[in-house]
Design a protein that fits this description.
This protein has about 140 residues and is mainly α. The chain contains 7 helices and no strands.
């Protein structure tokens, strides 16, 4: 079986069908080019969707709904949490994979910037006694 058919049989069948419809290339030639048998392409073309494909389609629709309801802000972790709250048993990675295939991306959290910036003046010097001398006065030695 060809590499395209092993990767995703539905894609291979779609390519074969489009070659026939759009370019007038016979099934036999298209199948030979992709490395699959004609009987294989007919089998895949006429089969109903599997239960797994149907579950994945329903999951994709539900993910799109949650993403729209969030205003486009939720990423895969929050979508996963919402699905669990709705009673769906699904993996975090499955949600992330479906979202990557569909294309919606949540907004990034913007971190707050500090408004206080260090000044250009050096910090005041403090003497070892803990008090600073008064400004514009020199400290004198001992007073007698």
């Amino acid at each position: 079986m060809g590499e395209v058919a092993e990767a995703d049989p539905a894609v291979a069948v779609g390519v074969i069908s489009s070659c026939k419809a759009e370019k007038g290339i016979p099934h036999r030639v298209a199948c030979r080019a992709l490395g699959v048998s004609e009987s294989w392409s007919y089998k895949w073309r006429d089969r109903p969707p599997t239960e797994r494909e149907m579950r994945r389609q329903h999951l994709a629709e539900e993910i799109e709904e949650i993403f729209r309801c969030s205003g486009g802000t939720y990423g895969s972790p929050k979508v996963f949490i919402e699905l669990v709250r709705r009673g769906r048993r699904v993996s975090v990675n499955t949600v992330a994979k479906v979202m990557a295939e569909l294309g919606p991306v949540g907004r990034k959290v913007r971190r707050r910037r500090s408004l206080t910036r260090p000044g250009r003046r050096p910090a005041p010097r403090i003497s070892s006694a803990g008090t600073s001398p008064p400004r514009n006065r020199t400290s004198s030695g001992q007073a007698t």
